[in-house]
Every structure is written in C-alpha cells, then in structure tokens.
Amino acid sequence: MEVSVLIPARGGSTRLPGKNNLKLGPLSLVNIAATQGRRIFPQAKIYISTDSSETARRAFGQVIPRPSHLCTADAATIDAVKHALETIETEWVCLLQPDHPFRNVESLKAQLARIDFDSVDSVFTVAPFHGFLYSEEGYRENHVCSVLNLKRPRSQDMRKQFVETGEFYLFRRSVISQQDFIFGRKKMIDGSNIMDIHTHADYEIAKKLWKDLWLF
What we know:
Helix content is 22%, strand content 22%. By secondary structure, it is of the alpha/beta class. 30% of the residues are buried.
C-alpha cells in the first residue's frame, strides 16, 4: 500500500504565533510530525503544506506552497488537504497535524498492521470518553437522565463513546468528501490523547512532558 504523509502547517496562529515552528527538543513541531510520519510509513513521501518561508526552509519534506485564501484563521483543514491532493499522487494519504506531537508511533504501527485495508476507507485515532457535557446554560448534553430514572449514571453503565484525538488520520483520496476527511468505511484505533498545543500555556506544559516523559 503506497502512502503519502501530509502535514498541514499554516504560518499564522492567533493564539500561539509561529506555533508550527516551535521546538520540542531539537525539532520543530512540523519536523517532529515529519519524522514520526517517516517512522510509521518508511517508504512514504512527506509533504508539508505551508505559507511560511521559515517552515519551508527547514522542512523535512517536499513543500506544497499554500495559497493565501487557505491561510486565514477560518480556513478549513479539509480545503488545504484538497489543494495538496493536486500534488500528491498516492491513493492513501496520512494527515499528521503538527500541534499533536505526542504520538505513540510503535502503537500506531502495530495497530495499522492488523487492519485489512481492503475493507476500510479511513482510519483515525480516538480515546474513550466517559464525561458529561454541558451547554453554556448548564444543561447536560449527553447521558441525559430519563423521566423515569433521574439517577446520575455510573461511568461503567454509560454507553461507550469515543473522542477524536486529532493525532492521526489515514484516508483514501478517492472518497474524499465536501464535509470531512473522516468518511466512508471508518476504522477507529487507539490514540495517546496526551495533549495538543494551541496556547503558550500548552506549549510550556508540552516542553516539560517532552523532556521528562516522552521517548521520541
């Protein structure tokens, strides 16, 4: 199975300027993703979609220049993916977002090795979710108590639910849709779900975790 790795790395970030070029250890977030992509798929070609000259200059892969209309704060990742597919030729594409660096590469490789790819169109990482969600008004949005049973459910009695971790996506280009890159016959695999990086506070925590805990 031929796979290309795509790393979306827009230069602008309103919450954490220059985010994708920040470093954990010796590597930037972009190049951590590129290195992990190479470890998961050793034969894959690495592509970086960016409008940043700094990212392009230091990228561990082929740069796909991203047009300005796909670099705004409200630009959707799916649109950047579709633009990159004009360059990428393989049927399967792995999307690795730089702000999710805490991937367990060996776990991902082991799980991917067990998948029958003839029977799936997309693979993505998830983590179990046992919490309660509330609206701004304070109303519970999930696991709502019925009229006949007002007891708060125990976590072990809840219907199984999962949350996307955002660290790994693998999909067929031939079935990409207008809505999302999770589509068709889906396969969920376990993600690390440690943290992602969107703010200065996140970055400070990530540096500590990377130094003390993470075995890159």
